[in-house]
């Protein structure tokens, strides 16, 4: 890891240290000039944007999932069911707020707030438009972004990682077994997939030469990062679904195993806060995907060539929202189509597939960027770099395929051996269903069997009495 860190630092340093190079996008001089009342207006606007987006997301998720599953979605509350999210919110706020007797009351109340507040903080550094093309609000020129930092992406990761404490504390403070199991699952899940997500970000840092959100978006003026960094984009898309506990990775809330997960004992507004945090986190990770890999507020390539003012004024907000909606629809599509994974499969995907793939890809990106900074990059170097990477990936795929086939053959042999044995449904002390290939024994009616047992006992009683049985 120390060698990898040396390569990464060598790849990033030339771009960040030299502010005169044309590839340096870390210009934060546009921020910190707004008066306090304008900052307050922007904070309220960002907060309203998140709340309205969550309300619309809940409504359209239920409608889209209903359409995909060929059933009727919300259609009663308001015209075409448009007020269903508002009705659900009012219902949850008016329901009885119950605190279990065994719960730690203070922690139980604070846990939903700890999960929700960091979700709002992460959106503060998301750019809705270019910082150098400011808009006028009540006569003051201001960028379409609340603020930015030289390490803005690290701030987002730090803010979103705090939310896991709310989930852990909710499960622990409930004083119940199933919420605690759900909280432990969620902890392992967040740690596993946040590592892969962070590694996919490092490749973007190396490629863009900055960790500020506005700088990363500015660096994609010609090519979006989803093309040159396609493996990082794929890894991030998978990791963001696992990070937000959404289907098919919603294992901390598995109803068939954990009743309801970490929020089983919650009701009323506390229950609503957890779902609010979940949907805001969906907006956050979708926004990160847009600004890290899809050009952020940049208009699509064909639109930029035809319409030269597409990236000026308030129009960048529209491009950002359209890309955000596309990613939200991706979440809904996954929920409607894919079944939930087993927990061991889910953890194997994170630790044995995503993280090793991220490390190999990150090493390749760092080497390519270093050679490009030194001016020594040509096609022969690309062959030398990509050749071993493709070879390692091919060997890993062959090994995994051979192991999968061996495991499948072993399972088939075990099933055949189990089918050859006579099946006893009460062999383990409790009734079990038959495995594939096994058949249930012939069923004996309850009453004839009881009559037979009674007859045997009547015929055995005189002999036992004559023998002087002490138990009779």
Give an overview in words.
By secondary structure, this protein is mostly helical. The protein has a domain at 89-359. 64% of the residues lie in helices and 1% in strands. It has 15 helices and two strands. The protein has helices at 2-17, 36-68, 84-94, 105-121, 152-173, 177-208, 213-218, 230-243, 255-258, 268-293, 301-306, 315-337, 343-373, 379-420, 446-466; strands at 135-137, 140-142. A two-stranded antiparallel ribbon has the order 1-2. The radius of gyration is 30 Å and the shape is globular. The model is unreliable at 1-23 and 464-472 (pLDDT under 50). Pfam families: NADHdh. It is a multi-pass membrane protein. Keywords: Cell membrane, Membrane, NAD, Oxidoreductase, Quinone, Translocase, Transmembrane, Transmembrane helix, Ubiquinone. GO terms for molecular function: NADH dehydrogenase activity; oxidoreductase activity, acting on NAD(P)H, quinone or similar compound as acceptor; quinone binding.
Separate helix tally: 15
Which quaternary structure do these chains form? Answer: single chain
Give the tally of β-strands. Answer: 2
Mean pLDDT: 80
| Element-by-element helix/strand order | HHHHEEHHHHHHHHHHH
In this structure, how is the largest beta sheet organized? 2 strands, antiparallel
Structural class: mainly alpha
**Mind telling me the C-alpha Rg?**
30 Å
Low-confidence stretches: 1-23, 464-472
Strand content: under 5%
First and last CA, distance: 78 Å
Helix proportion range: 55-70%
Strand order of the largest sheet: 1-2
Shape: globular
EC number: 7.1.1.-
Subcellular location: Cell membrane; Membrane
Membrane topology: Multi-pass membrane protein
Enzyme class: translocase
């Amino acid at each position: 890891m120390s060698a990898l860190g040396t390569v990464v630092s060598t790849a990033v340093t030339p771009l960040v240290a030299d502010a005169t190079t044309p590839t340096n996008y870390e210009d934060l001089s546009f921020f910190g000039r707004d008066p306090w009342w304008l900052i307050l207006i922007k904070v309220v606007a960002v907060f309203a944007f998140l709340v309205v987006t969550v309300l619309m997301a809940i409504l359209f998720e239920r409608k889209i999932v209903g359409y995909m599953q060929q059933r009727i979605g919300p259609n009663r509350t308001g015209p075409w069911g448009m007020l269903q999210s508002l009705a659900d919110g009012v219902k949850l706020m008016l329901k009885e707020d119950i605190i279990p007797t065994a719960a730690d009351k203070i922690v139980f109340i604070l846990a939903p707030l700890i999960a929700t507040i960091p979700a709002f903080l992460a959106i503060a550094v998301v750019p809705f438009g270019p910082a150098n093309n400011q808009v006028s609000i009540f006569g003051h020129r201001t960028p379409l972004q609340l603020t930015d930092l030289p390490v803005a992406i690290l701030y987002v990761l730090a803010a979103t990682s705090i939310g896991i404490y709310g989930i852990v504390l909710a499960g622990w403070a409930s004083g119940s077994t199933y919420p605690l199991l759900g909280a432990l699952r969620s902890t392992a899940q967040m740690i596993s997939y946040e590592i892969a997500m962070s590694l996919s970000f490092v490749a973007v840092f190396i490629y863009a030469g900055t960790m500020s959100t506005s700088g990363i978006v500015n660096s994609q003026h010609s090519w979006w990062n989803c093309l040159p960094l396609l493996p990082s984009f794929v890894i991030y898309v998978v990791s963001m679904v696992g990070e937000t506990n959404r289907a098919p990775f919603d294992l901390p809330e598995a109803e068939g195993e954990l009743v309801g997960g970490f929020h089983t004992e919650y009701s009323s507004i506390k229950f609503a806060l957890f779902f609010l945090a979940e949907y805001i986190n969906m907006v956050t990770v979708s926004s990160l995907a847009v600004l890290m890999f899809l050009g952020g507020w940049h208009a699509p390539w064909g639109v930029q060539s035809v319409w030269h003012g597409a990236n000026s004024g308030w129009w960048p907000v529209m491009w950002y929202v359209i890309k955000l909606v596309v990613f939200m629809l991706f979440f809904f599509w996954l929920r409607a189509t894919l079944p939930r994974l087993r927990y061991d499969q889910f953890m194997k995907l994170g630790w044995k597939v995503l993280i090793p793939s991220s490390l190999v890809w990150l090493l390749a990106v760092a080497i390519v960027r270093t050679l490009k900074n030194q001016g020594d990059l040509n096609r022969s170097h690309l062959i030398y770099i990509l050749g071993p990477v493709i070879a390692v990936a091919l060997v890993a795929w062959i090994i995994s395929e051979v192991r999968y086939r061996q495991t499948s053959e072993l399972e088939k042999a075990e099933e055949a051996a189990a089918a050859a044995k006579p099946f006893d449904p009460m062999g383990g002390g409790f009734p079990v269903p038959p495995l594939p290939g096994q058949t249930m024994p012939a069923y004996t009616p309850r009453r004839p069997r009881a009559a037979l047992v009674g007859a045997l006992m009547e015929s055995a009683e005189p002999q036992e009495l004559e023998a002087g049985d002490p138990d009779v």
